[in-house]
Amino acid sequence: PQAWQAISDLESVQNAVERGLLRLGGPVSIQNAVYRAALEAAGGEARIWGYADSGLVFVSLEASAVAAVRTSLRERFGPQGLSVIVDAAPPELKAGIDVWGGGDEGVEIMREIKRRFDPKSTLSPGRFVAGI
After folding, report:
1. Rounded CA separation 31/73 (Å)
2. Close Cβ partners of 22 (under 8 Å, ≥ 6 residues apart)
3. Residue 78 CA: distances (Å) to CA of 21, 43, 72, 74, 115
4. Which of the residues 51, 93, 115, 122 has an alpha carbon 20 to 30 A from that of 130?
5. CA-CA distance, 121 to 99, in Å (whole number)?
6. DSSP E strand boundaries for the chain
7. What is the rounded radius of gyration, in angstroms, for the C-alpha atoms of the chain?
8. How do residues 47-100 score in pLDDT, each as one tens digit?
9. Cβ neighbours around 6 below 10 Å, total
10. What is the DSSP letter of 126?
11. Segment 2-53, tens digit of pLDDT
12. How far apart are CA 27 and CA 45, in angstroms?
């Protein structure tokens, strides 16, 4: 019964899309600081869970806070190796922000791989890093 209760307590995918879901990945050594900073940036209105052994953290928060929290975490922890990806958010919000983050490293290689394996750009056009 406890396992089924835990499953039913998890947020639904639809709820995550109506809210916002950030996926944070980085060194385990900064994970506690990232947890605290995410809660602070979201004004305490976030649900945070992660995997201590991998450095992977998820933050579910109000859609209106996604862009600000994403920017805050990237600025503060990006230099320490944290990546911040917007996994889910309302479509109108995702259309106006950089959901992938990161720099331009490897973008030309990724474009060439996409061109070779999907020359007509039929597979999720424009939905990856740098609009690939």
Report:
1. 12
2. 38, 58, 59, 61, 66, 69, 70, 73, 84, 85, 86, 87
3. 18, 20, 10, 5, 29
4. 51
5. 20
6. 20-25, 47-51, 56-61, 83-88
7. 16
8. 888 877 787 888 988 888 999 999 999 999 999 989 999 988 888 888 888 888
9. 9
10. T
11. 666 665 665 555 555 578 899 999 898 888 898 889 888 888 778 888 877 7
12. 24
**104 pLDDT above the threshold of 90:** no
Nearest to 87 by CA among 123, 52, 49, 53: 49
Residue the block writes with tokens 């450095």: 55
Question: What's the residue count for the chain?
Answer: 132
Tokens of 99: 């959901």
The neighbour count for residue 22, using CB atoms within 10 Å, is 25
Q: Is 131 exposed, middle or buried (0-12, 13-18, 19+ CB in 10 A)?
A: exposed
Nearest 10 degrees: Cα torsion 28, 78, 73, 40: 50
What type of residue sits at position 64? S
| Segment 102-110 mean pLDDT | 77
